[in-house]
């Protein structure tokens, strides 16, 4: 099958990943290619060189004759115009090639608003809760039969349901074999990783770890420097250490030697890839009750407490650390692998593109996780 994958245009689709969306897009392209599909990725130019990547023009405003006199407006500023032009170029290019299907992994409304003009079906994975511009695109796209939507969790699907006529739920997967299982860990140690920003709540991990008497190591890209400088940096030192933006091997090593992982998202987390990644290393999790956490963790792999309750999270740390690490790994093996995710996407693709059936398309695209 000839597939176009549209990425968002904020970060390259390459390691180290800035977040779960980049990782999901990379895995989707890599795994589809491994199964023999011809995949073209529309993404930033510094994306994985092993992919066939087409980078759209990103600085349309620089081409204006009066660029030096260009003035930002409250709504239609440079970034709006540049992204609008870039995604327009992506859609024009897709329209010029005989793709069988488009997988839209962007967070921009334009591919949705214009998807019905393409000559092939489009699958859009919803990775985030409704926000104004993306919601507008979904509302415009949902009446057209060629568009199909996928939510990465049941909780996210419920948030989008008022605007959608139908959708599937396909949980994210990870490359389980790439996460080395660690049967033992260092006592009273905790690990937190993710984007360093307010909605991920690393300050709660710091407070809970200190209250419980656990040493904490934090890792991830600093997405909000002001937040880091104001809220996180003053708390570092002694039993709390920020160890930087790690590559995959480094994250795996840190997770494997931690007695417990911390998940402290204070927004409704659409999925939370850090959860299956920690579990794959055998690391049980103490988590806030955020978004899809209850769909990923069960009573044998994590302890879930009310959001923003530091005392409850601190109390959960030693309880989670006592859980069986083999059960944590089994949870991922049974529910959250790349193969399972791609099986479900392929099943959906072949429903939308009749006559291109493959032996891998044997699962229903709509799934639930017990």
Automatic annotation (TrEMBL):
The keyword Transferase applies. Keywords: Transferase. Residues 186-321 form the Glycosyl transferase family domain. SUPFAM superfamilies: UDP-Glycosyltransferase/glycogen phosphorylase. InterPro entries: Glyco_trans_1 (IPR001296), Glyco_trans_4-like_N (IPR028098). CDD domains: GT4_AviGT4-like. Gene3D superfamilies: Glycogen Phosphorylase B. Pfam families: Glyco_transf_4, Glycos_transf_1. The keyword Transferase applies. Residues 19-176 form the Glycosyltransferase subfamily 4-like N-terminal domain. One of its GO terms (molecular function) is glycosyltransferase activity. This is Glycosyl transferase family 1. It comes from Neolewinella marina.
């Amino acid at each position: 099958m000839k597939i176009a994958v549209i990425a968002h245009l904020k970060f390259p689709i390459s390691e180290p990943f800035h977040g779960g969306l980049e990782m999901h897009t990379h895995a989707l392209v890599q795994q589809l290619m491994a199964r023999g599909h011809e995949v073209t990725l529309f993404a930033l130019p510094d994306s994985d060189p092993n992919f066939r990547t087409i980078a759209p023009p990103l600085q349309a405003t620089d081409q204006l004759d009066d660029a030096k006199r260009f003035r930002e407006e409250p709504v239609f500023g440079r970034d709006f115009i540049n992204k609008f032009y870039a995604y327009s170029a992506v859609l024009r290019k897709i329209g010029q090639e005989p793709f069988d299907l488009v997988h839209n992994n962007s967070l921009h409304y334009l591919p949705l608003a214009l998807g019905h003009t393409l000559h092939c079906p489009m699958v859009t994975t919803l990775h985030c809760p409704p926000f104004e511009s993306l919601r507008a695109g979904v509302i415009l796209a949902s009446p057209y039969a060629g568009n199909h939507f996928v939510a990465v969790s049941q909780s996210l699907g419920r948030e989008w349901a008022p605007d959608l006529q139908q959708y599937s739920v396909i949980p994210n997967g990870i490359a389980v074999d790439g996460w080395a299982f660690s049967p033992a860990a260092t006592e009273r140690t905790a690990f937190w990783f993710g984007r360093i920003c307010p909605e991920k709540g690393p300050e709660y991990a710091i407070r809970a770890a200190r209250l419980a008497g656990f040493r904490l190591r934090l890792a991830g890209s600093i997405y909000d420097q002001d937040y880091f400088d104001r809220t996180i940096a003053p708390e570092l030192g002694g039993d709390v250490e920020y160890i930087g933006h790690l590559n995959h091997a480094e994250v795996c090593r840190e997770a494997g030697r931690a007695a417990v992982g911390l998940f402290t998202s204070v927004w409704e987390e659409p999925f939370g890839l850090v959860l299956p990644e920690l579990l794959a290393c055998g690391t049980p999790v103490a988590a806030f009750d955020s978004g899809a956490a209850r769909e990923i963790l069960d009573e044998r792999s994590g302890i879930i407490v009310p959001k923003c309750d530091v005392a409850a999270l601190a109390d959960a740390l030693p309880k989670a650390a006592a859980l069986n690490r083999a059960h944590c790994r089994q949870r991922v093996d049974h529910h959250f692998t790349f193969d399972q995710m791609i099986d479900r996407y392929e099943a959906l693709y072949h429903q939308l593109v009749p006559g291109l059936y493959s032996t891998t398309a044997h699962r229903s695209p709509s799934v639930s996780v017990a």
